[in-house]
Design goal:
With 198 residues, this protein is α/β, with parallel strands linked by helices. It has one domain: Class I glutamine amidotransferase (GATase) domain (Rossmann fold), CATH 3.40.50.880. It is 29% helix and 34% strand. The protein contains 6 helices and 12 strands. Strands 2-1-3-4-12-11-10 form a 7-stranded mixed sheet, sandwiched between helices. Helix 1 packs across helix 6. It is globular. The chain starts with a strand and ends with a helix. The structure holds glutamine. Glutamine (GLN) binds at residues 51-54, 84-85, 88, 115-116, 119, 142-143, 145.
Length: 198
Amino acid sequence: MKVAVIAFQGDVSEHIRITQKAMKELGIEGSVTAVRRKEQLEGAEALILPGGESTAISKRLVSGGLDKAIIKMAEEGKAIMGTCAGCVLMAKEGDEEVEKTGTELLGLMDMRVNRNAFGRQRESFEAELEMEGIGNIDAVFIRAPAITDSWGECRIISSFDGLGVAAVQGKMTALSFHPELTDDTRIHVKFLKMAMEP
Ligand code: GLN
């Protein structure tokens, strides 16, 4: 299994490390690669979009043509997981800040995001969440977005303070928080299992 991690900013090495750990737990052979050019996405069966700054990441995705390659992966039914800024980029709709900054969303999931929903209150915090299909998890939020609406095939599977913080649509997962910053592999294990589904 080849897993690609978009590597312009964010917790790239942490995502690589925890994905490798999850692969080991599942007994899967595979590679997890940091990707900056669209050619590097060839053959990837799963993709992670880490956090960072959504405007900066979107610019790099568009200028390198990775945006189109990622949209194609989604159309082909590959597993894609976006965390924090990655969650913002996966959405079809964003709040006025997304618009003001000219952030080009990939538009993969039927959901609306509020880019700095939690960051306005507190820069970063940890909270225990109940997540459908996973159970209780400790989640790390850093200037976190929220999923404020969903429709179509998209389903919110965890909320905090009345706002969506995790959603799934087919094999795509969007998370407001940073699962790569804990030692809990359950989310990455689930992501790999989705990637292996026919
Ligand atoms: N709110 C930030 C943004 O959308 C994301 C912050 C993060 O990824 N930690 O740019």
